[in-house]
Amino acid sequence: MSFYSLVRQFFFSIDAEKAHLLGLKMIKLVHSLKLSSIVFGKPVYAPVEVMGLSFPNRVGLAAGLDKNADYIEGLSAVGFGFIEVGTVTPRPQPGNPQPRLFRIPEAQAIVNRMGFNNKGVTHLIEQVKKSHKDTLLGINIGKNFDTPVESAVDDYKLCLQSVYPYADYITINISSPNTPGLRTLQFGDELKHLLETLKTEQTLLAEQSGKYVPLAVKIAPDMEDSDIKLIADLLLEKGIDAVIATNTTIARDAVVGLPHANEQGGLSGVPVFQQSTHVVTVLAEQLQGKIPIIAAGGIFSAQDAQQKITAGADLVQIYTGFIYKGQALIKECARALA
Questions:
Q1: Which amino acids are annotated catalytic?
Q2: Rg of the chain over CA atoms, in angstroms?
Q3: Average pLDDT over every residue of 170-177
Q4: How far apart are CA 213 and CA 242, in angstroms?
Q5: Using an 8 Å Cβ cutoff, are 120 and 144 in contact?
Q6: CB count, 10 Å around CB of 31?
Q7: Pairing state of beta strands 109-112 and 266-269?
Q8: In this structure, what is the dihedral angle of CA atoms 171, 177, 182, 184, given to the nearest 10 degrees?
Q9: Could you tell me the domains of the chain?
């Protein structure tokens, strides 16, 4: 049994959300004691240029693990080529009632219905300003749960303005299944209006600051091919800089009958791999290399990461695989994609 298997055994014996927080605190402690290089080793350096940015390697941390940017330095030392923090909202909010995070070990999966629990954009900015990171930083933005969907654009615009000076890229999260009505922003006039508004604001902020910060859009895996193609066309039309495929799924086909399978929320991990990789394939066919794709969803091995790249992705992000497999997975994937 590997060392991380023993560590995971301990973490999996306690409440999932408590384990999540404890794990992050341990990473922070290792970094503060200047033990990162001993515990985590040297990060893989295999630079690649995407969105006009130079990424130290192709393997990133997906949003959701460090919602408030409280652990940037420690996570940077773990070996990720880039880190995405958030989702952050204009005002602090507690998220959904606990329990709201559930493991399904039999399927190497997690169900979450966190609901954008975060300390608000002001706190996140203060944390980013204090950090001395060695990796690229993406900031994932969303709307407050009590902001009506028809006013969502105001929340996204406020977050964009707030985080713009501190991000290497910014992700527009319109695909979490845990904020009522949010996923409707992925379609039709709602998406068009949102992208037009944020693109105009990005242009203005770039002119004012002299710094161009790319915009990415994160989409759901639960869509028909025709809808994916429509989104791809709109991203091209509006000049969006990247697309992240995908968020968690509301489908449960792969976990039927397992404990916690029927919990409401988004399912991540191995069960979403094929689904999210299919979205990458459809996007790649439609985008024809004009917009980079960041693939997330069910990466548990170097072979999984390679499959995402083969499907058309430029970068990959890991979350659930990191929980189940530990830090070794990051290096394994980064080396394979070098």
A1: 176
A2: 18
A3: 92
A4: 11
A5: no
A6: 20
A7: antiparallel
A8: 110
A9: 3-336 (3.20.20.70)
Quick check: helix, strand or coil at residue 227?
Answer: helix
- The structure tokens listed for 302 are 């170097």
Euclidean distance between CA atoms 181 and 306, whole angstroms: 34
Half-sphere exposure of 251 (CA within 13 A, CB side): 16
Phi, psi at residue 20, to the nearest 5°?
A: -55, -50
Asked if residue 13 has pLDDT above 80, the reply is yes
The structure tokens listed for 138 are 């993406």
pLDDT, position 185: 87
**Residue carrying the six token digits 């991380």:** 4
Residue 114 has pLDDT above 80, yes or no: yes
Report d(CA 338, CA 328) in Å as an integer: 15
- Confirm whether pTM is higher than 0.85: yes
Q: Assess contact for 171 and 137: CB atoms under 8 A.
A: no
Distance CA 73, CA 134 (A): 7
- Confidence (pLDDT) at 2: 67
The three state secondary structure string of 72-128 is HHHHHHHCCCEEEEEEECCCCECCCCCCCEEEEHHHCEEEECCCCCECCHHHHHHHH
Quickly tell me which residue has 């507690």 as its tokens.
Answer: 94
CA-CA distance, 110 to 101, in Å (whole number)? 7
Average pLDDT over residues 220-225: 94
Would you give the DSSP letter of residue 271? G
Edge-to-edge strand order for the sheet containing 101-104?
101-104, 109-112, 266-269
8 Å CB contact between 302 and 335? yes
Judged against a pLDDT cut of 70, whether residue 99 lies above it is answered with: yes
Is-contact 330 79, C-beta < 8 A?
Answer: yes
Determine what percent of the chain falls in helix, strand and coil, rounding each to the nearest 5: 45, 15, 35
